[in-house]
Amino acid sequence: MSIDKKIVDDLVANDISFVTTVPCKQLAGVIEEVEARPEIFHIPSNKEDEGMGLCAGAFMGGKRPAIIMQNTAIGVTINTLATLIQYYRMPLPMLISYRGELREPVACQVEMAVHTKALLNQMNVPTYHFHKESDVDELDAILKYTFMCNKPVAILTDASFWGGYGDQ
Amino acid sequence: MIRSEILRDIAPILRDQLVVCNIGLPSQELHMIDDQPTNFYMLGTMGLSSSIGLGLALAQDKTVISIDGDGSVLTNLGTLPTIANNVADNYILMIIDNGSYGSTGDQPTYAGKKTSLTAVARACGCENVVECQDVDAGKVLQAAIDSKKMTVIVVKCDSGNIKLPVITMDPVVIRDRFMTAIKA
Known about the structure:
CATH architecture of chain B: 3-Layer(aba) Sandwich
Number of domains of chain B: 1
Strand content of chain A: 15-25%
Helix content of chain B: 40-55%
Structural class of chain B: alpha/beta
Number of helices of chain B: 8
CATH class of chain A: Alpha Beta
Shape of chain B: globular
Largest sheet of chain B: 6 strands, parallel
Order of helices and strands of chain B: HEHEHEHHEEEHEHEH
Strand order of the largest sheet of chain A: 2-1-3-4-6-5
CATH superfamily of chain B: Thiamin diphosphate (ThDP)-binding fold, Pyr/PP domains
Distance between the termini of chain B: 34 Å
Strand content of chain B: 15-25%
Radius of gyration of chain A: 15 Å
CATH class of chain B: Alpha Beta
CATH architecture of chain A: 3-Layer(aba) Sandwich
Helix content of chain A: 40-55%
CATH topology of chain B: Rossmann fold
Shape of chain A: globular
Oligomer: heterodimer
């Protein structure tokens, strides 16, 4: 089974039916799979804080949401995480492409990569790092944990997890 | 009319609907005028009232009204294409456009200068965009509810604020009360 399909199967199995996305090359396959599933309403957002607002509304309307984004978005969403998602105590799985890690070809991506875990740690966001393909086996448990504790939870997925960037 | 006078005017219409209310003075005013469990007060996160309201409208069937301001829509201008391209006919975005950042001391916004949010909303692809004057806000809002078509309303009004206390209700209480009202 492809990794993209396995990830989206886990979302669906956990009753996640509202997913917002801001694209990343590494996440393209997952986003395509999200769009293809009839169980999921896929709503692309223009910026990640906007996406978190959509997720907050969907959660209050009775749906389980998720956001798919790049780690650069941590810089965009600190205020929204603190004053909306955490302050009103809402669950939000964040599937994050962890750019700027090993095998990264674009130097500038490293500049946010070095801050990513520190920022998530400062925000007390439970954070999981998928580095090997088998790490995805924990996704189901992480999603259950997120909706158990009503917190935003970060799942960082790096280039090694995705099998590199291919030919550069 | 200033924003608080408009809210007082439309409160009888709002009270039967799900309302997501913008951060700062708009939420404080609505809370003082007619606190309802069907009101979701934003205590922070400027700009996201329209996004929260759209997410809520897409997730369930009841009518949702997002009360927003011109300054907050300018902060999250990407919301308008998202609204236009994800039509929820139970969703109304009411932008109270007083051309200023009211909660921070009435500094002018670009919407009070050359930028027309009505024209921006239309250019983004929103199909039902109505611009009206403050005195007509209630009539236009009721018509939008009755139409059962997603509508963006831009209410032009004067800038100005009244003195009133901050909301001290706990955010989790606001959220829980709101979710219970949604399910009722």
